[in-house]
Each structure stands twice: as C-alpha cells, then as structure tokens.
Amino acid sequence: METPLDVHPHDALSDYIVITMDHLRVKTRLIRIGNSRGVRLAKPLLEQAGLEDEVEIRVEPGAVVITAVAAPRAGWAEAAARFGPNRLLDAPTGTRFDEAEWTW
C-alpha cells in the first residue's frame, strides 16, 4: 500500500528551482496536488512580488498571472484628498425637502 511519504523516482527528479538574481527569474516544474497541479514559489520571489497569503490568479494567453490582492477602495482616500476639503465636484443644490419642509 502506498503512503504519502512514498517517493517515486519520477517525482524525485521533477522538483528543481533555478534562481537568477537579475530579475529574480525562477524556473520550476508543475507538481501534482491531487487531480490538480501546483507550483512552489521561492520565498525571495514572493517577497520581491509582495505576495502574502491571498492572491488573485488570472489567465492570459500562454501564462497564468498571480498578483497580490488589491484592498477594496485602495487609493480612494488619496484621490479624495487631491480634491481638498472644500472642493465638491458639483455645486450644492437644494432639494424639495430643503425648500418646502425644512425650517431653521
């Protein structure tokens, strides 16, 4: 009976990583994970890319692209600050409530 610790000769020869420091390129092989395939990513590669626990994966012709997950509304505060505290996109306008029902 085969156990998870059994190493097959073809598996032992398929795992290799080559790292060059010019643009930190890595060459590796796809590994079997159940019925799927996976890639082991070297720590320096993850650090340079700024990847942490959660990533987004998309497919492009001839490539699978892994990117860091963008935080929701990332950059919104900075964009709003460029308008300044008193600069609205449109001039304030009154509503029917303001004109008919609101009393000071």
Structural features, described:
Mean pLDDT is 76; it is low at 1-13. This protein has one domain: Ribbon (Pemi-like Protein 1, Chain: D), CATH 2.10.260. It has a two-stranded antiparallel sheet with strand order 1-2. It has a two-stranded antiparallel ribbon with strand order 3-4. With 104 residues, the chain is an alpha+beta fold. The chain contains four helices and six strands, in the order αββββαββαα. It has helices spanning 9-12, 43-49, 76-83, 96-101, and strands spanning 18-20, 25-27, 31-33, 36-38, 55-60, 63-68. Strand 5 and strand 6 (63-68) form a beta hairpin.
Structural class: alpha+beta
User: Strand share of the residues?
Assistant: 15-25%
Any idea what the radius of gyration is? 27 Å
How many domains?
Answer: 1
List key phrases describing it.
two-stranded antiparallel sheet; single chain; alpha+beta; 6 strands; 104 residues; Pemi-like Protein 1, Chain: D; disordered N terminus
Short description:
The chain has 104 residues and is an alpha+beta fold. The protein contains 4 helices and 6 strands, in the order αββββαββαα.
